[in-house]
Please model this.
Amino acid sequence: MKKTIATLKKMKEEHDRITMLTCYDYSTAKLMDAAGIDVLLIGDSLGNTILGYEDTLPVTMEDMIHHTAAVARGTKEALVIADMPFMSYQTSVYDAVVNAGRLIKEGHANVVKLEGGARVCEQIEAIVSADIPVCAHIGLTPQSVNAFGGFKVQGKSEEAARTLIEDAKKVEAAGACMVVLEGIPAKLAAIITRSIDIPTIGIGAGAECDGQVLVYQDMLGMFTDYVPKFVKQFANVGEVMTGAFTDYMKEVKAGTFPAAEHTYKIADEIIEKIQ
Ligand code: KIV
Model:
């Protein structure tokens, strides 16, 4: 059965942890959906993992729509959340609603995600008023990399921790249906999780969030440009892929691939006539 924002709310109430992974294409979406992952997030992290940018800032609405639509086509049960890219909602409330609408209409997402706390509450309210569910994202928000001066853990001082608790309450009051907590101390994430009724999804925020998200290339050991402390590699798919690429290369060079079972047949009399 298709998961909805009501499913996730109920999971929080029942202390049933929510699983989320990033996803950017059709075939991976099919695998994750079949495995039972609750939420597929088309993160603007596709800027790093798929497009090879240093950060998420160059990612466009067209990039997000293209990948969201591919994931949506491969998904039957999981909830599909699409990131709003940098400058698609910061510029005005109007832009926020228009671009959120595009992710739903053209990308077929179920929910949109945007970064920021109190300062994006106007945008959250307006998007929710258009009947588009919003996932908020606070803490180490990658679109703020230049303002933060790098990818740094957030909420470590008393003032910063209090601000994050307030941000979580404000995005909930603005109508957000869930909130991603990224790169904050585990004990702070636990307090935030207890302080609000909407689900919290942690990444680098400890085990006491209502759910967890990871970038799938990180957890599969496919993306090793940098490996953050919070990543666990559940498999070394990168090594498996490199091994398969090498074997393919060897067999093509040796002429052992393709073998008879990989080739199409034609009647001998036709061959005799054409050569
Ligand atoms: O872009 C992304 O992948 C994200 C997750 C890391 C939460 O926002």
